[in-house]
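Extended Data, panel c. Modelled sequence:
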Amino acid sequence: MHVQTLFRRTIQLAFACLVLVAPVFAQAPLEPAQMPQRTVFYLLWRGTPAPSVRAANSLLSLWDDPDFAPVRSALVENLLSDSKKSANPKPGPTREEIAQYASLLENPFVLGYLPESRGAAPATDAAKKKWNGIFFVYDRTGKEALLSKAVLQLRASEKDIPKVSETTLAGIPVLKVERTSGVTYWAEHGKYAISANEPEVFEQIASILGGKALSGNSLAETPAYREAEPLLHGGILEFFLRVPRQSEIASAAGPANNKKVEPVLDALKLDSVHSIFGQVTLEGSRTRLTGAVLGEPAPGTLFDLIGDGQAAPASLAFVPADAVSYQESEFSLVSLYTTAKRAFLASQPPEQQGGAAFIEAMAQAKLGMPLPDALALLTGEFASLQTVPASDDSKRTIFVGIHDKAATLKLLHFVLKDQILSEHERGEASYLTISLTAKQPGGSGVPPKLYHLAVTPSLVLAGSSSQALEEELSRRASSANALPSAFRTVRAQFPEKLTGISYLDFQKLDWDAIKEKLLESSSKSVSKSFAQEKSAPVPAIPSSMWLMHVDPKVFPRHLHVSTSASWKDAKGIHFDGWIE
């Protein structure tokens, strides 16, 4: 099987593995302590949990609910879509066969990537090819016959039949599968199925699985992994990316591009980022998602793009006890600008660096002030709040944090001078009505699309109704910050200062309205597609669409609340959240 095809199908099926039932929680074929030191990336799936674990977990019990079957069927349809859309006349696996093959995900697997060995001899110009260090290992215990059947059928259904021959790598018989896109080495040997695109990678992974000791240190002994290890707790799903050093990336770019790449990497200070990782763990009824970007958050590094965090962001004061959803994030827009400018200048030869000044001049003409000054007016806080149980985005309020009300109003008047239809003052806020529809000579007869802003000393509120904004400000002025009880409970588990936080009450969503909106949107999309193809008649909705058959009540039956937060500390940026 071509490893890239396998990778695509693995990702597509990653969520589908929740539908499966395995007797035990298994160990991955390769744990970090068994992986070569130069491993850049891995994705571990440790197998589906026991039935008792699934029944207790809200997300898994939703997946297992008979009323959720249309969604599971839609996934199968999606897996079949590639062969249906392609020009390949050969039939692919049937829906029943795909459903059968999906049970392969009961067993653990690992997907990883090894960069080219530094000790490898330089290839001649004739032998040069793009390195593909992806490897895949699957524990095929109890699935030997089904796996072989799946691989043979997928290979036979390819448009161009690959050339298959036998060879030997790491002392075991291997199938060499040659395609126009590259070569894949595949073996089903003993307990494992192994796939890789590079003979060197295949031999190293197969040797480790065969019990041969690593020739050097393992990934688990590298500084990047040891830094992350205390935060990794053996999740059911886990990924880890060791961010390559600047020298490694420059070396991989080759001598011709090295001089272009290295200055940009220096400008971005990429070596300040050591690793990115995440995991999914099951904690009773809750599904927990955690992750982090670790490194050295010194000034001037990429970590500056995220703000330092706040204990009580300005928008939080508007969240009522009956809120449906709330999301807040904090960024440093000035740092984003300076980092992007620094990287741009590093990528340009001296004679072309005037382009940055030209772009800045254009921005200043548009904004009426230098771009850094305009960005400095914003605190970096962005938030949204939904207080009604509907799927209508027009009922959502957007918040943008500001430092200076007068300067922000001046900027808005300059940028939107031709679109501001009305303005009035009430209390501490200035209310602006803005037309988002471009003006047309003589008028188009189409009603303008209006949006409303309320500019306060610390925030700009945006919404589709001026009255709704006034009600938001009135509620803020007349009552203390109540917050939903579930939100308060979870908030206490996070650090004091957060760079982002989110809350969603599944029980307060109008699931019937959400379904209707999605159906309407899908219908418009289908109609537009048919119109572009000049096909007729146009069906309102495809009869196979799973939305038509799913019962919206299945969602609140299992899902209750989702809460998450992010924060920055001396080690990096962290994320933690639950679905229950």
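Residues 511-532 form the longest helix (22 residues). This feature is highlighted in the accompanying rendering.
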